[in-house]
From TrEMBL, chains A, B:
InterPro entries per record: DenD, Epimerase_deHydtase, NAD(P)-bd_dom_sf
Entry GO MF terms: oxidoreductase activity
Segments forming domain NAD-dependent epimerase/dehydratase: 3-206
Protein name as it appears in the record: Nucleoside-diphosphate-sugar epimerase
Keyword hit for NADP: yes
UniProt keyword tRNA processing, yes or no: no
Domain of life: Bacteria
Keywords assigned: Carbohydrate metabolism, NADP
Length: 327, 327
């Protein structure tokens, strides 16, 4: 089995590669080759099978074709300009997130000759726009309030149409906020959801810019990889033409996040959170979904964590070697 | 006020032009110039103001710019490859319905300098895909089952995003099946909904290819023009960021259509309908929505007919000079 990953240099991409290298198989089929693509050179880990790396801007005409020339059986399309950048640079966002996706799908279509790979597309809960019901169900409409969300919603529509027409066997998975993100704080407005856990666990101070009653939905990076692998191996005849699914997540308030941190890291961790309201971030967060009723994905076997405690524990296992650092 | 109409040579486009020529104003503002565009030369009626006609393929790079060079205040974007053709010719459908729409929106964006026209986009109930609830509400999700429906749904998303970003002041209106269509039978699978009324009223035989209990939603061509004009003049600050609306319609079974025909044209009209089931058309129709709960459009003042009798009466008024032909 040959696997192509677009966006392989990103956080989720790297974790997916790591898992595939470890497991050496996908859905019971031995991996014979892994092709890693990104706009910057992806890392190439040691593996029991050959790994190729490719670097290009896949939104440029002619650049998508080489990616599918060897007819990969499974394609993970994780490549995207993120929310903030797509909002700041309209043309770049549409070029990468819309044109790039379409050129990829068309490159697959042009292979022809019965080629019909499984294509796993990472969409986002940014396809939804306020006002929301208390829990967003599987049939709630997509009215994004960002260009990024618009581009992801268009990707979902293209995926469904190209699947229906038999050019690819696509599934779109709407990832919730991934938490606890490893590494340094990033500039995403949602970054604090990870920061207020990650920094205190590492002995550092973090800023909480929103009120304690803000509710949001999370899944761990490990769950994100689980979703991708499940999506790649699921029997899609059970899914039918509605190919885009909201993934399960853990819906908690910031206060509940902090309670979980207290249970796992103790009061000294909680004491490292400084509460400093940032009206800009508060305004952003008000436009975000609070809770999902992801029954369809759950009935298809997608699973997230059961609690925020579990999300923190996974961070400690996967990123801190299983124990809190001495502080 | 300067008005641009794309798709001016189509049935709804021609009726819109006729109305504007008659009324000489739109929303209380005098019309100073009308620009009619289509891929074939649109008719240019006599009018109290100058009418320009332009013929081009607006999906070709550089062709959308001249359309907006004179900064029209209102743009009606009715141009589209219809359902059957978009399904038969994937590339043409995506080129006209997606690329054309996007190039038009980008041409508007590139005018800059505060230019922000009202843009009325005709979408379609083809954005919905079975299975449906008994009545499709305003927050039901878009899962089209045709490439045409996919392209219209993408147009809606682009319209909302470009409106949100302030490049245009857009509104998308999802037209129900337009009935009674004037003229000859066309090849659309939905053509029989008009044929079974129009042909009998004109002394001709018509074929009914589906069972009598098939339910469908209709509005007259006059209502379609009313929708467009209302959309062009409505205060969109009342609409907010959710810019795409399902239009009101009359939901009736075929049996109810025929009862209305009997009341208006008598039994001799009904006798001209031959019932000949066509399994292909039956299969198509099973995938179509039956009824809409278009509360949002209604609350914004959009109005369709109150009954199918009224729809037939409008056909007789607008197309047959107000009386049934001698038969």
């Amino acid at each position: 089995m040959q696997i192509l990953i677009l966006g392989a240099a990103g956080m989720v991409g790297r974790k997916l590669v790591e898992r595939l290298v470890q497991e050496r198989q996908l859905g019971g089929q031995e991996i014979t080759r892994l092709i890693l693509h990104d706009v910057v050179e992806p890392e190439r880990p040691e593996a029991s099978f050959p790994i190729d790396t490719l670097t290009s801007d896949f939104s440029m005409p002619g650049e998508a074709e080489p990616l599918v020339a060897t007819r990969p059986d499974v394609i993970f399309h994780l490549a995207a300009i993120v929310s903030g950048e797509a909002e700041a640079d309209l043309e770049k966002g549409y070029r990468i997130n819309l044109d790039g996706t379409r050129l990829l799908f068309d490159a697959i279509r042009h292979v022809g000759d019965g080629y019909r790979p499984r294509l796993v597309f990472t969409s986002s809960i940014a396809v939804f726009g306020a006002p929301f019901p208390e829990a967003i169900g599987d049939e709630f409409f997509l009215t994004p309030l960002t260009s990024y969300g618009t581009q992801k919603a268009i990707g979902e529509l293209l995926l469904a149409d190209y699947s229906r027409r038999g050019f690819l066997d696509g599934i779109g998975i709407r990832l919730p906020t991934i938490c606890v993100r490893p590494g340094k704080p990033n500039k995403a407005a949602s970054g604090f959801f990870s920061s207020i856990i990650r920094e205190p666990l590492n002995g550092q101070e973090a800023i909480l810019p929103v009120p304690m009653d803000v509710r949001h939905s999370h899944a761990s990076p490990r769950s994100a990889v689980n979703f991708l692998i499940h999506a790649a191996t699921l029997d899609l005849s059970r899914v039918g033409p509605r190919r885009n699914l909201t993934m399960p997540s853990v819906s908690v308030t910031v206060a509940e996040q902090i309670d979980a941190l207290r249970r796992i890291g103790g009061e000294r961790c909680v004491a490292r959170i400084r509460h400093e309201i940032d009206p800009n971030i508060v305004r952003f967060v008000e436009g975000w979904p609070r809770r999902f009723d992801a029954r369809r994905a759950e009935s298809l076997g997608f699973r997230a964590e059961g609690s925020f405690d579990e999300i923190i524990s996974i961070y400690i296992e996967d990123e801190l070697g299983g124990a809190l650092p001495d502080q």
